[in-house]
TrEMBL record:
Any one biological process term the GO annotation gives: defense response
Regions of compositional bias (Low complexity) in chain numbering: 9-21
Source organism: Clitoria ternatea
Pfam family, any one: Hs1pro-1_C
Protein name (record): Nematode resistance protein-like HSPRO2
Gene Ontology MF terms in the entry: heme binding; metal ion binding
Sequence ranges assigned to domain Nematode resistance protein-like HSPRO1 N-terminal in this UniProt record: 1-183
């Protein structure tokens, strides 16, 4: 018997007034006692993480992410690394168009990197739009009024690569399409990015050069091994992972803000940031897919030149050499601890369904007045789904690019291996078992009511 006393609080309807009380034999229900076991994810060995940081020049990149040039701009720690990731993508696009290899699939490379730029612009525009919708942050971004610009002063970036790519015959079409994407995506904002987009509405322009600091970003395009590694894929691997690390840092800052918003009961704000984190996980999967375009021989030769291999006994996957990725993954998992706070109920120390029942009440009886809570819970589960897909997709990319036999050196080639952390992350039980159970029982409720109402007419 399922106890559904909360049903009396449901909104009145023909269904709720005439259908009999739900009574389901225990044997008809699937087991909802989910074993809450999570993979003990941890970073790779310290020497491997240090080599990863050194190759990508992450210490210098982190200084740029964390620099504060506009103290009154609350969202600078989030939007600055996002814009810097976009600028690295423009550099990546330039590298692709400059590729001298006759066997490179230039057309598909161009499409992939252009698509990455467009996806990032979409997320950046969402972040700016959410900033403007927040009373605490509206109007704090550093912008320049076009009416005050003199004839000698350009109204858009002088340091970004994109305006220059828009004038080069090889990259002109792709760069102009990106500029049109900027124009379209920033339509709902009161200012534009200042990258040279049409700006048909004559809106103020973000001080892109002052925020992004493109010159300093492009100074980090070289790797410590350029003098002894003659391999064109080196540029692609370096740029790809710098983009990934920049967006991982954005996710970390958003997750910190989500925790603060939930504590302050600003649930709609938390939901917006959760959806942004979900989009970033999907973007990271798209960035990793770029590895599928790399020439097999060049990439594997580069891997040997960089000594990108596991040490003896090392089972951590390559992506876990990113300490920031491990940190963000744990922060996404820890969102489950916010559920009782959102539902305003304490966890039952005896393991009772207290949280589950509160979720059912919210989904059915209280969603009209507390819909913000529903939104944030949905968004948190969206993060879980996107994050698990990222790790499973990364496993597939690793096996395809390096070969399943080579990948199995990191215990990734065997899908059932307990040491395969990527598969375990994908297969582990839901982080929100109470929400899962609430939806399961709610589904049985409506199925039972529908069946009884149908039987009335037979």
């Amino acid at each position: 018997m399922v106890d559904l006393h909360w049903k009396s609080k449901m909104p009145s309807s023909d269904m709720s007034s005439k259908a009999p009380k739900l009574s389901i034999p225990d044997k008809s229900l699937p087991s909802l006692q989910l074993p809450f076991r999570t993979t003990d994810i941890s970073a790779a060995a310290p020497p491997l993480c240090a080599a990863y940081d050194h190759y990508l020049r992450l210490p210098e990149l982190r200084k740029l992410w964390n620099s504060r040039d506009f103290p009154n701009w609350t969202d600078e720690p989030i939007l600055k690394p996002a814009l810097q990731a976009l600028e690295i993508t423009f550099r990546f696009l330039s590298t692709v168009f400059s590729d001298p290899r006759s066997y490179s699939n230039r057309r598909e490379w161009n499409r992939r990197v252009e698509s990455l730029a467009t996806r990032q612009i979409e997320i950046i525009a969402i972040l700016f739009e959410d900033e403007e919708n927040n009373n605490l942050t509206r109007g704090t971004a550093p912008t320049a009024d076009l009416s005050t610009c003199s004839n000698q002063t350009r109204s858009y970036s002088e340091a970004s690569l994109l305006p220059r790519l828009a004038t080069w015959y090889k990259s002109k079409d792709a760069a102009q399409r990106i500029l049109l994407s900027v124009e379209c995506q920033m339509k709902r904002c009161s200012y534009s990015l200042g990258l040279g987009e049409p700006n048909l509405d004559g809106k103020p322009s973000l001080q892109y050069d002052a925020v992004c600091r493109p010159h300093e970003i492009h100074a980090l395009k070289t790797t410590p091994y350029d003098d002894r590694v003659e391999n064109y894929e080196n540029h692609a691997v370096h740029a790809t992972h710098q983009i990934v690390e920049s967006w991982i840092h954005v996710s970390r800052k958003l997750l910190e803000r989500i925790a603060d918003a939930i504590e302050a009961r600003r649930f709609e704000r938390a939901a917006e940031d959760c959806h942004a984190v979900e989009r970033i996980w999907k973007l990271l999967a798209d960035v990793e897919d770029v590895h599928l375009m790399m020439d097999p021989d060049d990439f594997l030769r580069l891997k040997n030149q960089l000594a990108v291999k596991s040490s003896s006994g090392e089972t951590a996957s390559f992506c876990l050499r990113s300490k920031e990725l491990v940190k963000v993954t744990k922060m996404c998992r820890d969102l489950r601890h916010k559920v009782p706070e959102i539902l305003e109920v304490e966890v039952d120390p005896k393991g009772g369904p207290r949280i589950q029942e509160a979720a059912m009440k919210l989904y059915v009886a209280e969603k009209i007045t507390e819909f913000e809570k529903v939104h944030v819970l949905q968004a948190m589960q969206g993060i879980e789904a996107a994050m698990k897909r990222f790790f499973y997709a990364y496993k597939q990319v690793l096996a395809v690019v390096m070969g399943s036999s080579e990948a199995s050196g990191n215990r990734v080639g065997l899908s059932c291996d307990a040491g395969d952390s990527l598969t375990q992350i994908f297969l582990e039980p839901t982080y929100f078992p109470s929400l899962d159970a609430a939806k399961t029982f709610l589904s049985y409720l409506w199925d039972n009511n529908d069946n009884n109402n149908t039987n009335k007419w037979i």
